[in-house]
Amino acid sequence: MRLPTAYPAWKTYQLQQHPRTRTYGKHVFTLFPIPSPNILSHRHRQQALVILSSLILTFTGCGLNFAFGVYQSLYETLSGPFTDASPASIDLIGTLAVSLMTIGAPFASAWTKTYSPRAVTLFGGLLFAVANIAASFGQQLWHFVLTQGLLLGCATCLTYIPAVTVAPGWFNGRRGLAMGVILSGTGLGGVVWAPLLRYLNASIGFRNTLRITGVASFILISASALVLKWEPSAIQQHAREAPRSRRRGLNLPRANWTIVRSRAFVAHACGAILQAAAYYTPVYFFSSYAQTLGYSDTAGANFIALSNACNFAGKIGLGYLADRYGRLNALVLTTLLSAIATLTLWLPSSAPLGAEARQGLFITYTCLYGVTASAYVSLFPTALAEQFGIQNFASINGLLYMIRGIGTLVGTPVAGVLIRGQSVAAMGTVVSFEKTILMVGVLLVGATVAVSWARAENGVQTGWKWKA
Predict the structure, then answer these.
(1) Helix, strand, coil proportions of the chain in percent (round to 5)?
(2) Which of 65, 174, 57 is nearest to 122 (CA)?
C-alpha cells in the first residue's frame, strides 16, 4: 500500500532495530528498517565474501569427494592393500565419504549455530588433512575405508554443511543464483581435481598425492572459514532460541517438530532420499560405462569432467532462472528432466544399436544429466527456505540432508551390485548396466512425484500462483 503524500517522512533506522508500526487514520503501517549506505556497502561486501568462502569450501571438500573415481580406477589395478579387493568393496570408500557428508548434517548444523561457522569449519579442515595424510599410510583395505571413507566423510560434512546452512540467510531475491554459484563449486572441483589427481598419481604416486591433497585442502578450507559468519538477524534469532541454562557440550540437534510432522516436510524427505539414492550412481560409473561403448580409459574419464562442467554451468544458470520463475517450480522441472533423460537417453544407449548412435545418446545424456540432476542439489536449500521460511531453515535442513545421506549410502552400493551381478555383454547390448539404469530412472521418477507433492502442498498453504 502506498503512503499518502501528506504522510510525514520517516526516520532512517539501523538494521539492528525491530520494525515499527505507525497509524495513519484507519490504516496501520509496518515500517521496516532502512539501512544506511554504509551498512548496505558492508552487507554487500560480506555477501561477496560468503559466496567466495562457500564456493571454495564446496570446491575443495565436495570436489575432492566427487573426484574419487580417479582413486577408484587406480585402486582396482593395484596390489598390496587392494589385493583381491572387489570393485564393490573399493566403492565403499567413496560411498562412505559422500554419504557421511550429509548424514552428519543435523550435528554439523547444530554445532554451527552453537559454536560458530568459523570454528566448525576450521575443525573440519583439520580433520580433512588428518584423513588424507592418514590414508597415505594405509596398508590394508579397511585402513582406507576408515580414513579416506569415514574420516574424510565427517570432515567434508563439517565444511559443507556450514556453507549451505549459513549462506541462504544472506540472500533473498537472488538466493537461487547465490546458491547456484556456491554449489557450482562441486562441479568446478570435479573438473579441476580429477585431472590433477590423475596427473599427481602418475607422477609421484597416490600416497604422496594424498599427503599433498591433505595439506592443500587444509589451507583452502582454513582460509575460507575465517570469513564465514551468520547473517546478523540469524545471530539474534539463535540467541532468542537458545535456553539460558543450555550447556554447550555435544549439543545434540533439535528439529522443529511442528514442521517435521507436516505433509510438506514428508514430501521433501521422500524426494530427498529418492533423488540422493539415484544421483551419484551415473557420476560414479560414467567412466566405466563409457568404456563399454568403446572409449579408452582416458576418454572414459573425460565423461566425468564433462558431467562436472555441465554441473558447474547448470547450477548457476538454473539458479538464476529459479529466482525469476520460482524455486519450487525449478526443483520439480529439473528432477523431471533428469528422470526423462535417464529413461530416454541412457537406457536406449545400452540397447543393440549402432556404436555411433549409442555413443551419441550417452554424450547427450551426460550433458543433460549433469545440468538437471546436479541443479537439484543447489535448488534444494532454496526451496526449503522458500516453503518453510528462512527463519526455520537451520532447524530442518540438517535432518533433510541426513536423509539424503542415507539415500546415498543405500542407493550407490545397490547400483554397484546390480552392475557387477550381470557382467556379460551379448549381441552388442551392454547387459551389465541395464538394471542399474532402470533403478536410477525409477528412483528419479519417484523423486519427481515427491517434489511435485511438495509444490502442491505449498499451493494449498499459500494459495496457488505460478511463481513458487
Answers:
(1) 75, 5, 20
(2) 57
Instruction: Encode pLDDT of 323-332 as tens digits.
Output: 888 889 999 9
Grid cell, residue 366, equals 551426460
* 236-250 residue pLDDT tens: 776 666 654 355 555
> Is-contact 206 71, C-beta < 8 A?
yes
pTM for the model stands at 0.79
Whose CA is closest to 394, among 230, 276, 271? Answer: 230
Question: How large is the C-alpha radius of gyration of the chain?
Answer: 23
pLDDT digits (tens, 9 = 90+) for 431-448: 478 888 999 999 999 999
Q: What does the angle CA 154 – CA 303 – CA 73 come to, to the nearest 5 degrees? A: 55
Angstrom distance (rounded) from CA 132 to CA 1: 58
The pLDDT value recorded for residue 70 is 81
Cα–Cα distances in Å, from 379 out to 169, 299, 307, 333, 454?
A: 14, 31, 18, 11, 14
Q: Could you write out the DSSP letters of every residue in 40-55?
A: HHHHHHHHHHHHHHHH
Percentage, residues of the chain above pLDDT 90:
31
Identity of the residue numbered 45: R
Nearest 10 degrees: CA dihedral of 311, 314, 320, 326? Answer: -100
